[in-house]
Amino acid sequence: MTSSNPRYILVTTGVALTVSGSIIAALWPGSDGKTAILLILVNASLLAVYFSKIRDPAMARLLLFGLVFGTVELVADALCVQITKTLDYTPAGSVMIWESPWWMPLAWTFVALQTGYLGALALDRWGWRKGLAQAMIIGAIQIPFYEELAYYAGWWRYMDCRMIGHTPLYIIIAEALIVAGIAPMARIILRESSDAKFAAFLGALAGLWSILAGIFGYGIAEFIPNGFRLP
């Protein structure tokens, strides 16, 4: 049964902790990057407990995939800050790596692990067509949900683009595409025939895909005349 699978329990627990922690941070007066760091420590502790009890090379590879993906994501952040000028990390008040808070690659590591596993599970259960659709729904809802709460939590904010609430339309499009790309990669990584080097390679490839997805999403949302009737 999926519900009794240790990997499923790990991932769904991580999602529940991240969602609840993000809501608490959004409601916490004076929240900034420190609450993001605390949430990262909670996720890291969960993984530490899991790996201390279960020797799971496949999930370790997926964690490596997420870390490489999160590192390459620094480029996507820089494009949003420097080129489109739609992303602002100053509310976090954190030490920066390039244009991002130092903890962003770690945040993306956990998100990539969670969405990757759930996307791979959807592919296994529903097949390619329905599975990728499910993965896109996960990407279009789960990650933008974090994006919206991040505004209230004082982690980052967006500006000067078409928005739904405090989340850019182009980000919603991009995240749907990103998870659709991550899901089949995670499925490969979770197979016993995969190895760490290939997982790292796929993490870099997923990071590049995220950059392209962001460019595509921005083009669709911002430059197609009357494509979306938002202000």
Keywords:
mainly alpha, single chain, 5% strand, two-stranded antiparallel sheet
Question: What would your notes on this structure say?
Answer:
This protein has 231 residues and is mainly alpha-helical. The protein is 73% helix and 5% strand. It has one domain (2-223). The strands form 3 sheets. A two-stranded antiparallel ribbon has the order 1-4. Helix 1 runs antiparallel to helix 2 (33-53), helix 1 crosses helix 4 (104-153) and helix 2 crosses helix 4. The protein starts with 5 loop residues before the first helix and ends in an 8-residue tail after the last helix. The mean pLDDT is 94.
If you compute it from the alpha carbons, what radius of gyration comes out, rounded to the nearest whole angstrom? 17 Å
Strand arrangement, major sheet: 1-4
Order of helices and strands: HHHEEEHEEEHH
General shape = globular
Largest sheet: 2 strands, antiparallel
Q: Which regions are unreliable across 5 or more consecutive residues at pLDDT < 50?
A: none
The oligomeric state is: single chain
Query: Could you give the distance between the termini?
Result: 47 Å
Class inferred from helices and paired strands: mainly alpha
What is the helical fraction, as a range of percent? over 70%
Summary, kept brief:
With 231 residues, this protein is mainly alpha-helical.
List the helices and strands and how they pair.
Elements lengths: L5 H22 L5 H21 L3 H27 L3 E2 L7 E2 L2 E2 L2 H50 L3 E2 L4 E2 L2 E2 H21 L6 H28 L8
